[in-house]
Amino acid sequence: MSGERFLTLADVAEVLNISASQTYALVRSGELEAIKIGGRGQWRVERTKLESYIARMYDQTRAFVADHPFIESADAIE
Fold it and tell me: How far is CA 13 from CA 51, 64, 71, 75, in A?
């Protein structure tokens, strides 16, 4: 799996540590760009598209954290 240009949805699920159905949902929603190839219409995700998706998720997480700072309550300290 290390040097291949295209990944199966199962490969993507393994990389992201999510279920195959969650991976399929990401593809069908358009969040993760993929192509359908072959006579049986098998989904494939280009490795660079997966890396771009991961980078976007880091950006979104950074923005979320910046907008929602963690504030520890006094009750939680005791």
Answer: 13, 24, 33, 39
CA distance 25 to 21: 6
Is position 73 within any domain?
no
What pLDDT is stored for residue 74 in this prediction? 62
The conformation of residue 1, written as its DSSP 8-state character, comes to -
pTM of the model: 0.81
Cα–Cα separations (whole angstroms), residue 19 to 40, 48, 65, 73:
22, 20, 25, 35
The answer to whether residues 24 and 9 touch, using CB atoms and an 8 Å cutoff, is: yes
CATH number of the domain residue 30 falls in: 1.10.10
Q: How deeply is 23 buried, as exposed, middle or buried, from its count of CB atoms within 10 A (0-12, 13-18, 19+)?
A: buried
Predicted pLDDT at 71? 84
Mean pLDDT of 50-75: 90
